[in-house]
Amino acid sequence: MTIRLGDEAPNFTAETTEGTVNFHEYLGDGWGLLFSHPKDFTPVCTTELGAFAARKGEFDQRNVKLIGVSVDPLDSHEGWSKDIQETQGTAPNFPLIADPDKKVADLYDMIHPNASDTMTVRTVFVVGPDKKVKLTLTYPASTGRNVDELLRVIDSLQLTAGYQVATPVNWQEGEDVIIVPAVSDEDAKAKFPKGWKTLKPYLRVTPQPNK
Ligand code: BEZ
Predict the structure, then answer these.
(1) pLDDT tens digits for 35-73?
(2) What is the dihedral of CA 64, 65, 71, 75, to 10 degrees?
(3) Cys bridge to 127: 8, 32, 86, 183, which one at CB 3.0-4.6 A?
């Protein structure tokens, strides 16, 4: 099933390294980051899981719950976690779904047959508190993800969920943002009391409103 932005994130119940998890219950009223790994005991995935674990506090600060999936069974995940601790310095400290029957992988269309019939590609789904999909990313197995970019995009998603703004190229938390074109100058006076610069009628730049 193709999952598009704004779709409800399909719910599932799965065995994980932290017990049986119902996805929607696990997210509660917070945000979620669901990400797939091609296979256990693979090098790039090992570095990714170590990095996600080391930086879990930064996801916690943003009220984002991490949950990974790999199409191997639980005992394999447990052995792999020891290797991740040994080589990366931090073992996974969030649930890693055991998906040997590919239930979650199929539900989220994580297997791309042009890449592999058996392994998932590296997908990322950011889910909002309304359980709607806010972001999807797909990387090939050969390219590891970037934790800084995931945090950056979550900052943008959380900001733009609360204010009628958009974030420009390479935006980082604390930098100026763009007032969306749907807001008239008249309405902008009330919504953006710090004022704005009009570079073009469609390009109005204002300080980040929640700072
Ligand atoms: C990796 O995680 O290192 C990997 C997995 C599958 C294919 C290539 C690399």
Answers:
(1) 999 999 999 999 999 999 999 999 999 999 999 999 999
(2) 150
(3) 32
Handedness of CA 137, 158, 168, 6 (dihedral sign): positive
Query: Does position 114 have pLDDT exceeding 90, yes or no?
Result: yes
Q: Is the CB of 47 under 6 A from ligand 1?
A: no
66, 151 in Cβ contact below 8 A? Answer: no
The DSSP output letter for 169 is T
What phi-psi label fits residue 174: left (phi over 0), alpha (psi between -120 and 50 degrees) or beta?
Answer: left
Which tokens go with 49? 């899981």
Q: Taking all residues of the chain, what is their mean pLDDT, rounded to a whole number?
A: 97
Q: In this structure, what DSSP letter does residue 8 have? A: B
**Residues acting as catalytic residues:** 45
User: Would you say the CB of residue 49 lies under 6 angstroms from ligand 1?
Assistant: no
Spatial separation of the C-alpha atoms in residues 188 and 193, rounded to whole Å: 8
Q: Given the CA of residue 48, which atom of ligand 1 is nearest to it?
A: 2
**Which pLDDT tens digit goes with each residue over 71-86?**
999 999 999 999 999 9
